[in-house]
Specification:
Blueprint: H1 2-45, H2 55-69, H3 72-89, E1 91-94, E2 99-102, H4 104-119, H5 124-139, H6 141-151, H7 154-173, H8 187-215, H9 217-239, H10 247-272, H11 274-280, H12 282-301, H13 321-345, H14 347-360, H15 362-374, H16 380-405, H17 408-430
Antiparallel strand pairs: 1-2
């Protein structure tokens, strides 16, 4: 009995020691991760610093030790000492200016490593997450500098400012209720939709400018479709005259542009009508999935085309005062027209206005019918059919664009895969195994 108690007591002591050691091990790993990155960076730049793979783990362990001892006066003294050592260690003499300069990145990284070591004692998971973020920022430092200098223009910085004002200044000031007697116009929802969509469009626009010319037709189609599926389709269709051998590759780029457009519609549903999202998203996700499979199949079939030569899809910056006002006006007008058609003509009116609206903008129809469904003005069955009808007329409009800009072979190939996508939506309508229609 005494031997059993002694064994149990020994296990408990081992468990306590293990729990005490885990935060120190976490701090050491964090310091080693950041230290290796800094040492590689310094060696790559031809610079020397003691703040590397040996010193930073020790700094992290020191931070963990200060948290473990929990002595305020000692912590202040050691923290000041560590800060001075870090600043002095990372200082360098510049002959040209005759002054000492401190490499801010490594010094700040070392101080953060000390803080993360301290944090590891109380919340190791948060410390690890922050360490991974720090490691990521340090790893892409040169790319961030390059992007800040050449990757974004002055006009695009103005667009970022416009977006931030729209999201964090204008949006909170808008009325969070309907402003018309028919309960159609909800400024907060409309503006929130604008913020979400323009945010996605702008990120896709920047990514397209940076990667499109390097990664070829497929990525250009996918990213360009998130900004403007119609403009992307037009640009890709024009290439067929100069590159007739790239028929299937260009077709896959156009299909991926349509897939991006459908993914945007799913975002619209999730933002403006989360309560009916589960009933309607499959009518967009189904065709999008078929589109992805079609594009992959086309690309595999045309492997000899090797993703095509560099492609330049010139799209307008999606964030501007003009586009903002146009978007809000188009959304409001589409919502009013579809709502009035539903009241005066019933489901037929919704179908007709959705067909006409799909020619101009599929997202306007998606927003309008999801809002009306959320308010109980139309059923999910009517909303689903309206989305499918708008999708059909939108694809027909794109086929007309392809015909005018490209060749008949491209029209036929794209029409085939558009038809498969529409069949996917129809199958979801008749065989929806997850959410019964209301």
């Amino acid at each position: 009995m005494n031997a059993l108690s002694a064994k149990k007591s020994g296990l408990e002591q081992s468990e306590i020691m293990y729990q005490q050691l885990v935060p120190f091990l976490t701090a050491a790993v964090i310091g080693l991760l950041i230290g290796i990155e800094r040492e590689r960076s310094k060696n790559r730049d031809g610079k020397r610093s003691i703040l590397g793979a040996r010193t930073l783990p020790l700094i992290a362990l020191l931070g963990g030790l200060m948290a473990f001892l929990d002595h305020q006066a000692l912590m202040i003294i050691v923290s000041v000492f560590v800060s001075i050592v870090i600043l002095v260690s990372d200082a360098a003499w510049h002959r040209e200016s005759g002054t000492f300069r401190i490499g801010g990145t490594t010094a700040v990284a070392a101080m953060l490593t000390y803080g993360l070591g301290y944090l590891a004692q109380s919340d190791g998971k948060v410390a690890v997450v922050l360490a991974v973020l720090l490691f990521g920022f340090l790893s892409v430092k040169s790319r961030l500098h390059s992007f800040a200098r050449t990757g974004i223009t002055k006009n695009e910085m103005s667009a970022v400012l416009t977006f931030l004002i729209s999201a964090f200044v204008i949006l909170p000031l808008l009325p969070n209720s309907f402003v018309d007697p028919w309960e159609l116009i909800h400024p907060t929802r409309i503006w929130m939709l604008f913020v979400f969509i323009t945010g996605v469009e702008f990120c896709s626009y920047i990514a397209l400018r940076q990667l499109g010319k390097k990664w070829g037709t497929l990525l250009s189609g996918l990213l360009g479709g998130a900004v403007s599926a119609t403009a992307t389709t037009l640009t890709l269709a024009r290439r067929i005259k100069d590159q007739p051998h790239s028929l299937f590759l260009i077709s896959s780029g156009i299909v991926l542009a349509e897939v991006s457009s459908l993914l945007i519609q799913i975002i619209v549903l999730a933002v403006v009508a989360p309560n009916v999202f589960v009933h309607l998203y499959l009518f967009l996700a189904g065709p999008a999935m078929i589109g992805v499979l079609s594009a992959v199949g086309i690309a595999a079939f045309s492997r000899q085309e090797n993703n095509g030569p560099p492609v330049d899809i010139s799209l307008a910056n999606p964030i501007s005062l003009k586009s903002t006002l146009s978007f809000a006006l188009l959304i409001s007008l589409g919502l009013i027209l579809i709502a009035l058609a539903a009241r005066w003509l019933g489901p037929v009116g919704v179908y007709v206005t959705s067909a006409l609206g799909g020619v101009a903008s599929l997202r306007v129809v998606t927003f309008s019918v999801s809002e009306l469904t959320s308010a109980g003005a139309v059923s999910t069955t009517v909303a689903a059919l309206a989305i499918l009808i708008a999708m059909t007329t939108n694809m027909l409009m794109k086929l007309v664009v392809i015909f005018r800009a490209g060749r008949m072979k491209l029209v036929l190939v794209c029409a085939l895969f558009f038809l498969l996508m529409l069949i996917g939506g129809v199958l979801v309508f008749f065989f929806n195994p997850f959410y019964p229609m209301r």
